[in-house]
Amino acid sequence: MRPSVLDPLFATVTTLPGVGPKIAKTISGLVGGQPDREATLADLLFHIPHGLIDRRHRPGIAFSENGQIVTLQVTVDRHFPGPRGGKAPYKITAFDATGAISFVFFHPRRDWLEKNFPEGEQRIVSGKVEWFNDRPQMVHPDYVLSLEEAANMPAIEPVYPMTAGLAAKTLHRAIAAALQKLPDLPEWQDGAFIERNLWPPFTEALRAIHTPQEQQDLSPEGPNIRRIAYDELLASQLALALVRQTMRQLGGVSRRPDGALQKRVISALPFSLTASQAAAIRDINADLAEPTRMLRLLQGDVGAGKTVVALAALAQVIESGAQGALMAPTEILARQHFASMKPLCDAAGIRLALMTGKDTQKERRLLQEKIDAAEIDLVVGTHALFQGAVTFKDLGLVVVDEQHRFGVHQRLALSAKGRSVDVLVMTATPIPRTLVLTCFGDMDVSRLTEKPAGRKPVTTVSVSLDRLEEIIGRIGAAISNGQKAYWVCPLVEESEKIDLAAVEDRHQVLEQALGQRVSLVHGRMSADEKDAAMAAFKAGETRILVATTVIEVGVDVPDATIIVIEHAERFGLAQLHQLRGRVGRGDKPSSCVLLFKGPLGETATARLNIMRETNDGFLIAEEDLRLRGGGEVLGTRQSGTPGFRIAQVEDHADLMEIARDDARLILETDPELKEKRGDALRCLLYLFGRDEAIRLLRAG
Ligand code: ADP
Ligand code: MG
């Protein structure tokens, strides 16, 4: 149960004065409550300002610079209301000893203006000055006060990330009210550690962040943010350590079959394993032989051949008499895994089934019966596999492909489907070390460091969209020579409709230019339609596949040699690299055309340059982290580090390592979190939404 000291923080924002259902909804959207859950005061208080406004700056009208926020003491001169009903703004002129200024109002409330700007009287006005035709003006000042009221204006104000439909003042008031309710919380950190770092207590830090007196109060390197970032990191590391501890305690099954099934799978391959594939399989076999659970991350650049390793692992578990599951992030990928594994499974005698969200109830029931009867050894599927209703007779290994799209709890949900499920997580995103730690915690890692032999690097060029026709001409020539090409159109997040129009449009243009040899795949198509389009492309009936980014992860057509990425400037580096990984999978030289629409910003230019310069996924991931921050490396968020509200990979990487060691130490001395600090740490886990881990404690 949640410690009651936290209750005030888990009240919803509607309990705050001035926050009705409508504002609550807007606030919830902004501060990261889930769509179906109203934000709590804790959510609100973790919405921290990204800057501050200093209203103490009083340069005088003539010395106010363009774009600056200033506070002026002026004498109101005259009102120029503009014709009634007209579009012209309402203007009020004023002056001080240095010069004159206009205050400008659109859609004015006249009576309010007349009352607040009485002609001939002095007023304190604060807002942003803009110079327009060599004259200063201020559009919609933030504050207008009489001299007596001047003290009501805060000298320094935090500035929050905002959203449409929410007034800054409303948010400020809500946060101020929430701060009032902040309870005294027990210290969950080690006292000596806090002292050494000169960090304030949690509540003090949070208060200081919302009532900053100087930039330092808000700085990611300052003590307030670092303190709370560390709290958050510790919560996350502790949760992951608890998961791991539980998995270890529950114990695993030692699986030591003689490996015949694995050998059959490997010898059915039309190629020999790379050294790193073989090494990864050895790691996995050793893990499986141990009586503890496996929790291993298989990291390898796109095209490195992770699927084969997964299948080898699954074969080992299946030979020992258990069942396996492989989970893919999208339907297309699940189908593709199924298709590519089928011949190998047939050759080795592994009974394989596919499960997706599109199955009919009847199909699902039949499949479930077969799984129950142990007539199926291996199920490949999408998140349909997570659903509570699906059960296994004896699930021994779960392979999760492209893990970063799944959360920790989903992983837990799935591993709860067997008595002692081993977990192998595969990711093609070359996640830098720091992120591995934040996202996966204490996992063992195998890396596929080499590509299969004979692969040629992909030549990458960037070309302006102005040269579209020329590019179409060249693609036409290439496909007449027997080549195959992907043509990727970007996802415009705001509107699925526009996306659809863009791909359909492009499809039509290409079809007209190149004849009927162009397939189309996008997210709105049915699974069958997608399959048919992919199959036609794979078989070579069509030579171009126009697609939205649904092809991003994992699609495998080894003889495709060209990929055109339209509006490449809109993609993140990791995504571009993933997409480029669709080609260069065979023994023919391949190329990647980054079609951009200029003018390019600085970051976009840097990104395209990096793409031209290197094919190395790890280098690209590090650059991506540098250019855009942690969240985007994983492609999950506009900014910030995924799953974290305060902590940032770029700023707090040093703290991450400390938090991991700290978490380990804590569980070594108090594995059940039962002692005094343990109690406080339970608060911490709840506060940062990592309380699922506490349930594990009770279960175990
Ligand atoms: P990813 O690591 O991106 O998931 P895949 O498992 O899809 O890569 O493998 C990419 C392609 O490389 C597939 O066509 C696969 O059959 C092939 N492949 C995998 N391992 C080898 C190997 N050792 N030698 C040659 N080709 C391989
Ligand atoms: Mg893959």
UniProtKB/TrEMBL annotation:
Positions of the Helicase C-terminal domain: 467-626
Superkingdom of origin: Bacteria
Keyword DNA-binding: yes
Enzyme Commission number(s) from the entry: 5.6.2.4
Segments passing through the bilayer: none
InterPro entries attached to this UniProt entry: ATP-dep_DNA_helicase_RecG, DEAD/DEAH_box_helicase_dom, Helicase_ATP-bd, Helicase_C-like, NA-bd_OB-fold, P-loop_NTPase, RecG/Mfd, RecG_dom3_C
Identification of the protein by name: ATP-dependent DNA helicase RecG
Organism: Roseibium hamelinense
